[in-house]
Amino acid sequence: MRTMSPNNPVRRCLFPVDDLTEQAKIDNFANVLRESIARDREEKKRKFNFDFENEIPLDGVYEWYRTDGVNDWVAVKKDPCTDVIKEKPDALKQLENESTPRTNKDEKMPLLRKRRKSLGLVDDKGVRRKISFD
Fold first, then answer.
1. 26-47 residues labelled b (16+ CB within 10 A) or e (exposed)
2. How far apart are CA 49 and CA 90, in angstroms?
3. Which GO terms describe its biological process (predicted)?
């Protein structure tokens, strides 16, 4: 008996599907899976402005640079602030003023005081005892 090599695409179906509806469900699932993969590729292509199938960088938010590896790419997100600053030099001050986070120094925080340790007073909740280890 011949053994099947892992590279051989021929496979036997151990449990043949007699019902056509089962085969239709399997085909439908395969089609849905292919459509989902295609949708996911398009979404990632738009999100990262890179064609992952052809390995071509596209225009968009990220700048792509090839590294030493054959299929290695590095993405750097473009800073929209630098584009605005190049166009308008006064935009830097305006941008800093808009992006500076505000602190709540105006709102007064209540003054927190520590409890005084009064050694002489004992509450009714607790009892003072001396412990000796003689």
1. eeeeeeeeeeeeeeeeeeeeee
2. 31
3. regulation of cell cycle
